[in-house]
Amino acid sequence: MWRFSFYLYVFTYGVRFLKKTPWLWNTRHCWYNYPYQPLTTDLHYYYILELSFYWSLMFSQFTDIKRKDFGIMFLHHLVSICLITFSYVNNMARVGTLVLCLHDSADALLEAAKMANYAKFQKVCDLLFVMFAMVFITTRLGIFPLWVLNTTLFESWEIVGPYPSWWVFNLLLLLIQGLNCFWSYLILKIACKAISKGKVSKDDRSDIESSSDEEDSEPPGKNPHTATTTNGTSGTNGYLLTGPCSVDD
């Protein structure tokens, strides 16, 4: 719930901030007069908000449910923190806000789908997961490379030319895009299973969470809430024993 509230707030704030900026409508403004672009209060607040959240994810990952993609998630959080910090220090904040807002667009839907799954509202979970998958794949495999990577790789080259930090910045963005492709594969894998089973099943990354299918197959009279996870704790850090319906971002 707290993640859903944060993602909804920060995405709404990002949209409200960006719609007043010229670089949302014309990405070439990200590079005009670079690096002598003013750092406004709204832009500074947006960056600090995002950076503090990614640091919280970095630390909370070690107390959260251990999943098969722990290393990938750790790499994602590390790259995100480096990318936010690096773009801020090098005053690439304009294009950085486009990256942040675009990647926040699907996260609230994911957390809402998880809550529906935990509450056992299966139809609502399925609907939210479909919406999440559509937004995720559209923004990260379509809009991000065609819009953001286009301006960081080609428009910036034309306007300001390549320089040492330019190579580092684009390398980090391409690494993020590689992770986007990996998670898109997982999402499509879950979607295919959902089509075959008629509902969204457990998270493929989870080693310890039981799926809703396993609960349905338990014999009558057995209380599913007395089950113990493999790490010796019950409830696993606030998660119900039913796995989330898709992957974390």
Describe this structure in words.
This protein is an all-alpha fold and 249 residues long. The protein is built from 9 helices and no strands. Helix 3 packs antiparallel against helix 4. It is globular.
Number of strands: 0
Share of residues in strands: under 5%
Poorly predicted parts: 206-249
From the N-terminal CA to the C-terminal CA, the straight-line distance is 15 Å
Largest sheet: none
* Average of pLDDT: 83
Query: Globular, elongated, flat, extended or rod-shaped: what is the shape?
Result: globular
**Rg to the nearest angstrom?**
20 Å
SSE run: HHHHHHHHH
Helix proportion = 55-70%
Q: Helical segment tally? A: 9
Structural class: mainly alpha
Membrane topology: Multi-pass membrane protein
Biased composition (Low complexity): 226-243
InterPro entries: Lag1/Lac1-like, TLC-dom
Transmembrane segments: 44-63, 70-89, 125-147, 167-188
